[in-house]
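Re: export button greyed out
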Amino acid sequence: MRQTFAHMDAWLMSDHPESRRQAALGRTYGAWRAFSRNRLAMLGLFIILALVLVAVFAHQLAPYSPVEGDLRTTRLLAPSHGFWLGTDDQGRDILSRLIYGSRVTLMVVFLVAILAAPIGLLVGTVAGYAGGMVDAALMRVTDIFLAFPRLVLALAFVAALGPGIRNAVIAIAITSWPPYARIARAETLTIRQTDFIAAVRLIGASPWRIVLRHIMPLCMSSVIIRVTLDMAGIILTAAGLGFLGLGAQPPMPEWGAMIANGRQYVLDQWWVAAAPGTAIFLVSLAFNLLGDGLRDVLDPKAAK
Amino acid sequence: MNPRTRLFRAARTTGSFLGVLLLTYLGLLAVTFVIGRVIPIDPVLSVVGDRAPEALVARVREEMGLNKPIWEQFWIYICKIARGDLGVSLLTSNPVLKDIKRAFPATMELATAGTIIGAGVGVPLGVWAAVRKGKWVDQTMRVVGLFGYSVPIFWLGLMGLLLFYAKLDWVGGPGRMDVAYEYTLTSVSGLLLLDSARAGQWDAFRNLLSHLVLPATLLGYVSLAYISRMTRSFMLNELSQEYVVAARAKGLSEARIIWRHALRNAMVPLVTVIALSYAGLLEGSVLTETVFAWPGLGLYITNALQNADMNAVLGGTIVVGSIFIGLNLLSDVLYRTLDPRTRER
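Workaround output, generated via the alternate export path:
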């Protein structure tokens, strides 16, 4: 068994890969080895994996219903054997709500990432490759968006679109793409000078093909690192919108809205607000640790 | 370089800065215009109701200028804003600008106190972490910073109120002061801390301070996380420069090298970082003020949001956005004037 592992290790780390697949797998494996040495980053990864599992198996894990409670018997109970984290003003089990709330948090983060990252990638690569007037115009728009206060702008968007989790996601996505555009443009500027792009151009590839097939994939890793680092910010913004009553609407078990709900009882029943805040903190900490670790592995320039 | 060229360059730089400023403001106004006019339901219907006769609808539409082309409407909107007309708040029936003028000093007081704490503590800690790179100070600062980046500030505020106000009774509760002082304190500028000190009302001053200390520390902590991290990275950059080696070879004391030579050079980018974090705190006050019932701009905006008072929301957005853009640009200008390397290329 050990021998097999040693063999695999040698195959993966080979300096002379015989196929594209071996090279790609070897690179991934090398990055993983560097990454797994970073204990804090591994902790972050572990928390996020646990969160994903909790979200997937919420139905099996949650001891009670997240939206229905018994107002007569289980209202505002302190943490106990029956209710590990206590109950809220509607008599609902807070642990169950937290467990179901992980789905909301993951969904928001995922949706914002797949909405904002492609916009940023497209704007940045097109601006960087086209240059000239297109570049100037696109980057001016990006700068304008960068100079805006994100939270306040998201508030105004949600105010106009109407409160709700969908509109909160749209508002956060609209305000969070500019940094990705900046990064993608910077990468594009270095890539477009390389020989292989010149070769592709000589073969007769159209500019769109070059941008979409050859430049964009190479910009992905920097953008992914930046997105991971931004996840914590996205979670905090979404929770802030929920706290102000503009994100998820009751009875959806969103963590920010749960804090808002616990706010009126904080002096006597502190656990109603304490638990969801701890959850938000842990998850955004995990994303920060993971992002830092990824940056150290994939982007040695930024590591200091 | 002859003086004429220099003057020409200065004029061109100023010109391009003004151009950027103008463009960015136009962008901000375009966004608020779109939010206010295009997205919501027909504003005419919201005035006359959906059962009004068609002639009335047409007349109101004409009176509101909504039958004009969209570019003309945007131009009229810009002119209105330029005159300082942000509309009337539905909630208070005051002009929005007047409301904002009254609320703004409270926010400014909070954000300023937060920045003073954040920079006053964050810069020395960042320097310390850079000097002891990799040692326990550095590690601890990293954890402190990560904590600051990850914690929801409104929740930390709630827990702070629970612990320091309700349980320990060390600080004042929500609001800017105890109710008793609201009528005895006459305010000139709205910056109550300054006003009470100038009038010699020291018990009011102490009361104000006890209410300010918790929210300001929280905001300060968030900006400390950012400022100390940036300070550390700027200092590491400076400490690896050759002039530091030269200074050591000359026999200067380590303290002198760190604080007089390296930090002074690191201060140049740091000024822009501090300006940006001040802007960030003005924005972050939206959530903090809600938790602490602090009667500033943030609370004004959130109250307006909850009552669908769009004029007040958009007015607040324009004001916060303008300050944000202004500070952004100011930090850029400061960087260029302070760092001789960015001049006259």
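Residues 115 and 220 of chain B are 6 Å apart (CA to CA). The button fix ships in the next patch.
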